[in-house]
Specification:
By secondary structure, the protein is an alpha/beta fold. It has helices at residues 42-45, 152-159, 164-187, 192-198, 200-207, 225-231, 245-258, 271-274, 276-279, 291-302, 310-319, 334-348, 352-358, 380-389, 419-422, 431-439, 455-462; strands spanning 3-5, 8-10, 27-36, 51-64, 71-80, 83-84, 94-101, 112-114, 124-128, 214-215, 223-224, 262-268, 306-308, 365-372, 391-398, 413-417, 444-447, 472-478. The protein has a five-stranded mixed β-barrel. A five-stranded parallel beta sheet has the order 13-12-18-16-17, with helices on both faces.
Length: 494
């Protein structure tokens, strides 16, 4: 995420589509305030007259509806029509909240929002709609951006039966990925047990620090506890019901196949997976430490699920001297976004509808700009100092009318994800922006903050019509999410 100023995170303008029922996820809860972000000043809200502040709450009782988890993140209104809210409850205050799922209100996603809560991405996000003065659903709250429409010729090819060449190319991709992972496994002992055993000293050292929220070795490069913890696990595949991501993703693959939709899984490496040598001197020289993630990919391939191995891609980037993660943030940097998008685009070249889209003149051009760098791994005074002086260069995608890229709601290419997929959205530099630029085809985005593993629930919420006209779902999720052990399998609506 991009810190626009001290402690400020700008939420992004997503293209998530609500299920068609107004406030379908409306819930009323009794909750206790855990954390409150720092309120914004007027200049931090501009160019809008409305602003949000992120809070986290411990749910004591669900009065009506339902919420995900016993702790939730709630975006509350801090500025309404140019007037700031002055009084805020103290930590520990118990209150009744009326909330809707964050994804149901894409009209507020482009507003400025204060968020300096360290672990906010660990919770499901909601919007507070209980304030009688809060604005109603309105596209006027955010600056709507026009998207490039999907040509009818592209739609027709996307809905056509798969070509033999597409099926053959998919089989080759599965075989190539399997061979590459087996080669890596052979280099590290030949079995998953042996590979884990080889990392005993590395894990012994990082276990000493994984409970810290941030770890800062010498030099300007920081790590986070969730990514460190993920490296200590031999596998992400739990034995309890709903605790195995392979079971959930395999079920998703099967149900999508019945609907004529292909699935491509993209596990985004944790920052710690790519830079273990900056985390500790005990890291192996090969830097091959992401055993649980590679085991997950291998088992998915065994189930016939296609994956894009960004671990191999990002390690190759490091070997070329490219930095692909932000130094003070857990998210990738603009180059990491671009490299991931191009890797996914290369896989989607097999489709006739993509080649049809690429035969047209380019819809977007790339431009460079600078923004404040992310600092979600920093707190306190140093966060303030870094937010004021740390900037990063990004590449954005813009139309001929010099408008930043915007996702289309009905593209044959649907991308699901989390905060990684939303990074640089306002600047037209997000994952879907670069993927669209490479394909010359607008994409759709279905994202949930900090909860990419709930892809089946997100599809269920949107209803059967949401998958009509889709040809491929690119399921992206950062690796550390798989360490949480919650992977519900649901029957998608038909």
């Amino acid at each position: 995420m991009n810190c626009r100023s001290c402690s400020i995170v700008w939420s992004v303008l997503g293209t998530c589509i609500a299920s068609g029922v107004a406030n379908a996820s409306l819930a009323e809860v009794e909750a206790t305030l855990i954390a409150l972000s720092r309120p914004m000043q007027a200049e931090q809200v501009e160019p809008y007259r409305y602003g949000l502040i992120l809070t986290t709450w411990s749910v004591e009782k669900v009065v009506t509806g339902k919420v995900d988890g016993t702790r939730i993140a709630v975006a509350q209104w801090s500025w309404i029509d140019g007037v700031a809210r002055v009084h805020w409850p103290a930590i520990g205050t118990r209150a009744t909240l009326k909330v809707v799922a964050w994804d149901e209100r894409p009209d507020v996603h482009a507003l400025a929002m204060s968020n300096d809560i360290e672990d906010s991405q660990a919770y499901a996000w909601y919007l507070d709609v209980g304030d009688p003065n809060c604005p109603k659903r309105s596209t006027a709250l955010s600056k709507a951006r026009p998207f490039v429409a999907i040509p009818q010729s592209v739609r027709a090819l996307a809905l056509a039966p798969p070509l033999a060449s597409e099926t053959a190319d998919r089989a080759r991709s599965l075989a190539d990925t399997k061979a590459a992972i087996e080669a890596e496994l052979a280099r590290n002992g030949g079995t998953w047990e042996a590979w884990n055993a080889n990392l005993a000293e590395f894990r012994r050292w990082i276990t000493l620090v994984h409970e810290k929220q941030r770890y800062e070795p010498s030099g300007p490069f920081c790590f986070g506890a969730p990514g460190i913890l993920a490296l200590t696990l031999p596998t992400f595949e739990g034995s309890a019901p709903g605790a195995n991501p392979v079971v959930m993703i395999s079920a998703l693959h099967a149900q999508l196949s019945q609907r004529g939709v292909d699935l491509v899984v993209v596990v985004i490496p944790n920052k710690e997976d790519i830079y273990p040598d900056r985390l500790t001197h005990a890291a192996p020289r090969s830097r091959e430490v992401a055993v649980a993630s590679k085991r997950l990919l291998a088992h998915l391939v065994d189930q016939g699920v296609e994956v894009v191995d960004l671990f191999a891609e990002f390690n190759a980037c490091r070997s070329r001297g490219e930095e692909i993660y932000q130094p003070y943030d857990s998210h990738w940097n603009p180059l990491g976004v671009r490299r991931a998008a191009l890797a996914i685009a290369a896989r989607l070249q097999r489709y006739a509808f993509v080649r049809e889209a690429q035969s047209a003149p380019p819809h977007w051009r790339t431009v460079e700009g600078t923004i404040p760098g992310g600092t979600d791994l920093i707190v306190g005074r140093r966060k303030v100092e870094l937010a004021a002086r740390f900037r990063t260069t990004y590449v954005g995608c813009r139309t001929a009318r010099d408008e930043p890229y915007a996702d289309a709601p009905d593209s044959p290419v649907l991308v699901s994800g989390d905060s990684f997929s939303r990074y640089l959205d306002l600047e037209g530099g997000s994952l879907t922006a670069h993927l669209a630029e490479a394909l010359n085809l607008s994409c759709s985005l279905m994202a949930r903050q900090g909860s990419g593993a709930t892809v089946m629930k997100m599809l269920e919420e949107r209803g059967a019509a949401y998958l009509v006209g889709r040809r491929v779902l690119v399921y992206t999720c950062v690796a550390r999410t798989f360490a949480r052990g919650e992977f519900p399998v649901v029957d998608l609506p038909r």
